[in-house]
Amino acid sequence: MSRTESPARLAVRKTYKLYIGGAFPRSESGRSYAVTSSKGEFLANASRASRKDARDAVAAARKAFGGWSGATPYNRGQILYRIAEMLEGRRAQFAAELADAGTKRPGDVVDAAVDRLVWYAGWSDKIAAVAGSANPVAGPYFNISSPEPTGVVAVVAPDDPLLGLVSVVAPVIVTGNTCVVVASERAPLPAVTLAEVLATSDLPGGVVNILTGSAKEIAPWLAGHMDVNALDLTGVSDPGLAVACEEAAAENLKRVLRPAPADRADDWAADPGTRRLTAFLETKTVWHPTGI
Amino acid sequence: MFEYAPAPESRDVVDIKPSYGLFIGGEFTDGTGTPFKTVNPASEEVLSEVASASADDVDRAVRAAREAFGTWSAMPGSERAKYLFRIARIIQERSRELAVLESLDNGKPIRESRDVDLPLVAAHFFYYAGWADKLSYAGYGPSPRPLGVAGQVIPWNFPLLMLAWKIAPALACGNTVVLKPAETTPLTALLFAEICRQADLPPGVVNIVTGAGETGAALVNHPDVDKVAFTGSTEVGRLIARSVAGTRKKVTLELGGKAANIVFDDAALDQAVEGVVNGIFFNQGHVCCAGSRLLVQESIAEELLEALKRRLATLRLGDPLDKNTDIGAINSAAQLAKIRELSDHGELEGAERWSPACALPERGFWFPPTIFTGVAQSHRIAREEVFGPVLSVLTFRTPAEAVEKANNTPYGLSAGVWTEKGSRILWMADRLRAGVVWANTFNRFDPTSPFGGYKESGYGREGGRHGLEAYLDV
């Protein structure tokens, strides 16, 4: 690590692994890659996830979907707020990791990530009121439209190691989706540390699955996976990769959130709004008879 | 069964021209593609010859729409609204003519085009007219902007209704459109073009290009189209989703379905039988949200099937223009071949086939109402969309099993639940992965009620406040 290690006692280093189904496995491929700081110093070896890891992560996300989407919105909001609390508690650790990754004003960025989680946490039990409707149909029916989670969402997170990741994961899961997210390839360590935060926040295993490694290698497998319902390409900066993923996603009509145009590439950092929530919601309309 | 004297609707009310051009920039113009004939599927009589739009023609139409977009989108919403109200009124005034033309070109019974399609078409324009000057209240920001030029491709099963679902919200939001009707049912769209002229709609706001798949592909792939809206097969929906990859085009797709119609043992049986019949035999089963899989609780399966068969024996198949007709003609020879192929396969796979004694007219495309029992979930007739009057019957024991079976499909457009228990309706509705759930009813539509699918039934919603999102830059 960049900090000088005391000669009197050898520090215990952390092994950075994947986060799948609530557990921290190494890549089944046994592969890893060296992560360096922005100054080029070696920081740690991170797992280089494989296609098999991606498939395991999808299976874990699918398994978690029923429970998480069936949880009460109040409960999901509590858990997201709990994640914010745990993140705040590790502020110094994240700030140090972000500093290593070359992030400017790292403390402020951690604060922004906490605030973003708090913003989305509050949406859990409000989005249905805003995105749903009662429809005055011409007939003896109570007709109501309400938003439901799309299912398993595959996400390619922006290169920004913490705020970027939180900004794309929180809106996906707060409504009841589960996800598989490919973290920043350049700076994956804060993502793995965030996994530790998730694992200690009462978030059920499998709701968020974090893969580190090459987005170029993993994203096309996720985009073509038939048990993935939607794809968030926000973090894909290579236009060729974005097109290939969107084409693969067509096979089972995944909902696709395209990357923003290059001149607005850090769109995710802006005031969040509800667009990232509604992109992964389906509207269900129920016709319920009225009568005596 | 009662004997009825024939009661045909007069076709004198329609004036079908021997040939039709494309409607571009407010004028009817020739197409440069090879013209095609549209036939009456009930008699195979050629109704008219219709121009086919080449890629160049599509380009002309998109340019006309682009040119009109500036003034149309800048026009106060209250003025756009009045154009739409005017169109809605003309549709009401000319509804008999439109209904007869629809039945002639499509083969659907006049009872349905007159009582279902046309009232819904007028209502849809009327509904979205009211939104045009209220968009800032719709929940999409203080002044949501239109997208630009919408390229819209619609199917042959509800030609005019699908046109209304596409054009009304697009125009209300300030977009201009190029719409391609299906090649077997272009006539009501062309009459609608005439209605646009009657309403003095500014030229280029609505353009109608007729043709087959290549015309649709040219429209969808046109670089100056900002929005693609498609209703049709999942197969073509996939192609469209691929072809727009890497563009900024906004896309909504309303695709196939394999809906479960679930009947519990406490359901009002006669009412459920009517619902099952309406679910699958309405519009000859040419309905993307048709209740093509009947899931019936085991304890009442026998009783329900008997009642269903009794009811089917009273359905009248024949001349679509006869007001007593329940089941009209299959829309095309190609569709008839597809229905036959899948039905034959159902028998091959071991399901038991039943149809009432039912004389089919000699000319035209016809298929009797058909029920398959002993169907397994793995059978093709339980998995693939037949898009015809063919019902697959499966059974279940517990509500959980019903949910499991209903959701066991790549589609997710609609579902039906029949039970007297209100809490069970909502319990089921909560678990069914489908965009529309009907309880103790089926195939009911309303302009205020969003419609659209989960999973491979596509994405986006049509109708209601939600339907605006597809045509706004949000």
From TrEMBL, chain A:
Top-level lineage group: Bacteria
* UniProt cross-references to InterPro entries, sorted A to Z: Ald_DH/histidinol_DH, Ald_DH_N, Aldehyde_DH_dom
Matches recorded under SUPFAM superfamilies: ALDH-like (SSF53720)
Which terms are listed as keywords in the entry?
A: Oxidoreductase
What range(s) does the Aldehyde dehydrogenase domain occupy?
34-256
Q: What is this protein called?
A: Aldehyde dehydrogenase
From TrEMBL, chain B:
Q: Which PROSITE patterns match?
A: ALDEHYDE_DEHYDR_GLU (PS00687)
Domain Aldehyde dehydrogenase residue range list? 29-473
Active site, UniProt feature: 254
Q: Where is the chain membrane-spanning?
A: none
> Quick check: keyword ATP-binding in the entry?
no
Q: Which UniProt keywords apply?
A: Oxidoreductase
Q: Does the keyword Acetylation apply?
A: no
**Top-level taxon in the UniProt lineage:** Bacteria
- UniProt record similarity statement: Belongs to the aldehyde dehydrogenase family.
Q: What is this protein called?
A: Aldehyde dehydrogenase
- Species name for this entry? Streptosporangium pseudovulgare
